[in-house]
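Thread: quick sanity check before group meeting

JM: Hey all, I'm pulling together slides for Thursday and realized we never actually wrote out the predicted structure for the chain we discussed last week. Dropping the sequence here so it's in one place. If anyone has concerns about the input, flag it before I start.
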Amino acid sequence: MKKALIIPLSVLLAATALSGCTRTSYAIHTNDGRTIISDGKPKESETGLLGYKDANGVKQQINKSEVKNVAEVPH
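JM (edit): ok, ran it. Output follows.
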């Protein structure tokens, strides 16, 4: 009886864990034609900078005056 419950519960737990790992990416389009992909939503600061994590997980910043628009990347 216990084996019959363990397998479905472990499958459910694995599916839940994997679905929670998805993050939304955003495309930051700059005035000079570059496109930067961020991991997660960029955050604006009071100093006029837009902070984001790049594809390698490194925190970066760009001057908001250099940004044309920010759009969510569809999956």
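AS: nice. Residues 14 and 20 are 10 Å apart (CA to CA). Helices lie at 2-19.
JM: adding both to the slides.
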